[in-house]
Amino acid sequence: MTTPLTPLASPTSSEAAFADETRPSSVTVACCQLALRVGRVEENRQRVREAVRTAAGRGAHIVVLPELANSGYVFESPGELLATAEPLDGATIREWEALAAELHVVIVSGFAELGTDGRAYNTAVLVDETGLRASYRKAHLWNAEKTYGFTPGSHPPPVLDTPYGRIGVMVCYDVEFPEWVRLVALDGAELLCAPVNWPLYPRPDGERPGEIVRVQADAAVNRMFVAVADRTGTERGQDWLGGTVIVDADGYPATALRLGEPAIVTATIDLAEARSKAISELNDVHRDRRPELYARGGKET
Amino acid sequence: MTTPLTPLASPTSSEAAFADETRPSSVTVACCQLALRVGRVEENRQRVREAVRTAAGRGAHIVVLPELANSGYVFESPGELLATAEPLDGATIREWEALAAELHVVIVSGFAELGTDGRAYNTAVLVDETGLRASYRKAHLWNAEKTYGFTPGSHPPPVLDTPYGRIGVMVCYDVEFPEWVRLVALDGAELLCAPVNWPLYPRPDGERPGEIVRVQADAAVNRMFVAVADRTGTERGQDWLGGTVIVDADGYPATALRLGEPAIVTATIDLAEARSKAISELNDVHRDRRPELYARGGKET
What we know:
2 copies of one chain form a homodimer. Chain A is built from 8 helices and 15 strands.
């Protein structure tokens, strides 16, 4: 694929129409539910590399990896985080760029970023065969991320056209803020990719984990696909849920859940479905909004 | 109970503190999943009366009824709707006021309202032993409601203190707009009561209906209880889901679902749980919001 890639201001622009004509009618998304090890950057890079190759071998066009896939998660100190985080032009991103170019895939992955300001960010990147297309810093930090020393992001989540569809990106706890999810949906994202590290919490017998339920709602109220890649295993005593899920535009999982198992979960989906927001003869989940009445939600502090 | 009831501007006002001291530590909520018949106002009123008495007999403090509980739903024409809708000082509301006073319950019900402007509204009312406390007109109309001739509301959903807790009210499709749900949650609602008429749609095998999933998410992202009373049965060929559910502040159903059955579903819950928005040592679902970054969502048209 050699389609030039340009971030678009609006999905109705001429570039979007061009992208529509050239891209495949269905795409295969792979979410890699991996066990990683905090601080073992080389080892994690190898695991990610193998997963991306496996996913591409299964026909994946878009490969989603967990949050902080280069570094692992359960840091013992801000110093350990800073020693592990990498710049956006470092060896890990360079490797992901090479993989994307070789395998003709889009990679969305979590990444412990060492900013040029010397601060650490819980970042997600989107890399395609042309290189690093976007990086996004998690705006809603979870629990000990605040004490590890991550700096929260202060920019909206990116939405970009790729050869395989229009993709939005955010990280883990971000997806629990419907306002944030709405931003990418209103920007025309057909697929939201979210690297996560969901801690394992108790839940009532027979209930699907609430994290997955909330992602289903994110998808349904926006008629947008959502692909979540979670961790699995245990890290310094922290058990991970392993809740990787690809949700369709109706809000239902597109494939069976593989709770807690190491797995590469794939689904072949038609992202064009997300371009219609109609849910009945006279209803459209976006046009039915009454934003003039929601102002307090925007202004509330 | 003779506590004076005053709508409050803020849950931190002195009236709220007063209400906290006098109200019970746990309350029983009943959601009445009824079969009703369009246009049969007398018959529907009787069915509602019997359900409220049964619920009160089971210890309910708060009784939630379906959308349009006086009129039924599947109208054939705007004329039929107008002929069936009632004013807020009509016989149905008077009866509900008498029931609330006699049984010491709060009633939240859907109501086909004939406005003093001669228009029909898909309204919900909250009635307690002091009388009609609030009426709210559905702001997000569903499908044929637009052709039946309902006028959409243009005011935010009400949030009021009652002897049994601080309650927000909205109607059916309204709950699918997270911005709308957020408004009542930020206003301090501990319990959102939603009369609904959920049409029965196909869904993948083994999946919980998406309507319930979305209400679970509404509850969890706000740490707020949600009580939904749905219809059951079939009306002029329209099958109803019967998806009545009471969701706890963690976002899980507080009782077993009774999909499609006529049922009065009750749960005894501690609404005080909804006053803490903490979900980890360092996270709070409301304080973690970044409203300064959500502005586009409020301004978007």
